[in-house]
Design goal:
Helices cover 56% and strands 7% of the residues. It is mostly helical. It has one domain. The chain is globular. The two termini are 20 Å apart.
């Protein structure tokens, strides 16, 4: 079974403080999403390519499949960036659209659950940072 949380953390950490040539378009991504209590503080921002940014949102939906806000953010991202089957596989786009449809049923998720999800993400990020400081990452 794939560890989506670990992949998400690795992807975000790769984009922290990233400097690439100006010819490569980077997008600002909130590591802890604003809908889960994340802030605009620089420590919560990473810079991802368009493809990485889309992947980060797909991973968040895989990690928290019943979080309405994350699912609709992914849907809005696809709409605003005009991602097409040429940029994302049809299978993934189908999965995404099914998640969005299911999300409408989950719209009334309580805030307590979102707070638990946020804490889970924060714990994983803290574990990553501790591991990096110990040289084990």
């Amino acid at each position: 079974m794939m560890n989506y949380l670990r992949r998400y953390v690795d992807l975000c950490m790769r984009g922290v403080g990233r400097k690439l040539p100006k010819s490569i378009h980077l997008e600002r991504h909130h590591i802890i999403p604003q809908s889960m209590g994340g802030t605009n503080d620089p420590s919560n921002i990473c810079w991802l390519t368009v493809k990485e940014h889309w992947l980060a949102h797909c991973l968040l939906v895989r990690i928290f499949p019943k979080n309405y806000n994350l699912i609709t953010a992914l849907d809005a991202m696809v709409g605003s960036k005009g991602l097409s089957p040429h940029r994302a596989s049809l299978r993934l786009m189908d999965w995404q659209k099914r998640r969005i449809t299911a999300a409408h049923v989950l719209r009334r998720e309580d805030r307590k659950k979102r707070e638990l999800e946020r804490k889970q993400l924060v714990r994983a990020l803290n574990a990553y940072v501790r591991g990096s400081n110990n040289g084990s990452a």
